[in-house]
Amino acid sequence: MADKKNFHLMNRLSLGPSLEQVQQIQKQGIEAYIQSQLQPQKLSYSADLKQKLQPLETLIFTPAQAFKEREQIEKTADELKLSRQEKQKSRRQFEQKFLQQARRGRLLLALESPRHLEEVMVDFWYNHFNVFASKGGETHILFSSYEQQAIRPHALGKFRQLLGATARHPGMLYYLDNWQNTDPNSKKAKGRFKGINENYARELLELHTLGVDGGYSQKDVMELARILTGWGLPNNPKRSTDEDGFYFDRDRHDFTDKVLLGKTIKGRGIEEGEEALDLLASHPSTAKFISYKIAQLFVSDTPPESIVKKLSQQFLETDGNIAAILKTLFNSDEFWDTQYYNTKFKTPYRYVTSVMRAIGTVSNFQPIDGILNQLGMPLYECPTPDGYKNTQAAWLNPDTMIRRSSLSVPLSRGLLHDGKPIDADRLSQTLEGLLSANTLDVINKSPANLKAALMLGCPEFMGY
């Protein structure tokens, strides 16, 4: 049986304990496990997992490939002389495939990837740099490559690289309208490109870097928006030969000098945006804001100032090396303070993934979309740019507890694996070290066919 310390580690560094993970840490030891998770590139996917991911073709589509595939769908529809309604249906089905495959891929990795910490950070960063898949237009086919090519490769890398990848990705540029951002005095300032659009610049400062109290002004928002004029999509993205889908239109850019956060940015083109991102990524307010959110994820909804300060210092000393920041966190007294054990409340996504990992196998992913919808957290469907929260205040309410308790019964009876009831003994081996003496007493006194449901619906399982 794993002790409380091991369970704290598994709860925070993964999306829920699994029996294999319990055994891995008991054999490998805490320090070796942490070190391995901080280097995900050295952990290979199993052949079985690769085989399951292989049919999910859209996961490897670049933006250019997605545009070209859609163009081919439309061309085929024209050749078949389909009606307008049939063409719309064909297009919707094509777009829906991206959402279905992205969700399946994310859940498969949450369940089977040996890179447990990477999956936690992908979820964290996607919400931090949120793109709403169903905004309409291009986001339907861009959000998936956004996660796969802008978020996932940099989840434990340098913050500046992550920031740059999200800033240039057409999914973000389309979602927050920067693709329309145009110098009103430029020769292409007409129609939808008639002037400055500050949406992305505002969220870049408020949500992605400095934070709402980071010391910027409305003038900084406007200056940053001017710096980012012309950052967008190709004129005809369907025929783009640029695989990453990014395009800088010099004819819509404001080439005058700007002043951002007190620093003069010389007007010279795309380089201004890169200089602005350098400035924001290395700013002390960014270090503090990102460190607070990371501490909030791994320690407490209201993390102690001491750990935020340690992480901020590490952020500035390592140029935002995320793995180094996390290593500092996992070596801190604050992370291991027992007062924080199991005090975080699971988001619906964490609840579902922790069920999957605890039961150990999923052969029927079909009900999961409905479950997440029912619990208020459909994957990739947060419409606001601040993404889904990971705090108790956002999710804990009487309705949530009733829904989760009700779900624990069908989940224990095999909802996710073809109606085959969960092995309560195996589940007990996985979760026993997490459950209180009182909960264990209730479970032990209950009928055999209710034991698994009680474990999945108990208060301890709702936390992490």
Describe the structure.
The protein has helices spanning 4-13, 19-28, 30-37, 47-53, 63-79, 84-112, 116-128, 139-151, 159-168, 170-175, 199-208, 218-227, 270-281, 284-298, 305-317, 322-330, 333-336, 348-359, 366-374, 392-395, 398-412, 424-431, 437-444, 448-457, 459-462; strands at 231-232, 247-248, 258-260, 263-265. The chain is built from 25 helices and four strands. The mean pLDDT is 96. The chain has a two-stranded antiparallel ribbon. Among the domains are: 4-37 and 345-462, no CATH class; 49-154; 284-340. The chain is mostly helical and 464 residues long.
Give me some keywords for this one.
single chain, 464 residues, mainly alpha, two-stranded antiparallel ribbon
Which regions are unreliable across 5 or more consecutive residues at pLDDT < 50?
Answer: none
Radius of gyration: 24 Å
Q: What gross morphology would you assign? A: globular
Strand content: under 5%
Distance from first to last alpha carbon: 18 Å
Quick overview:
Among the domains are: 4-37 and 345-462, no CATH class; 49-154; 284-340.
Note the topology.
Blueprint: H1 4-13, H2 19-28, H3 30-37, H4 47-53, H5 63-79, H6 84-112, H7 116-128, H8 139-151, H9 159-168, H10 170-175, H11 199-208, H12 218-227, E1 231-232, E2 247-248, E3 258-260, E4 263-265, H13 270-281, H14 284-298, H15 305-317, H16 322-330, H17 333-336, H18 348-359, H19 366-374, H20 392-395, H21 398-412, H22 424-431, H23 437-444, H24 448-457, H25 459-462
Antiparallel strand pairs: 1-2, 3-4
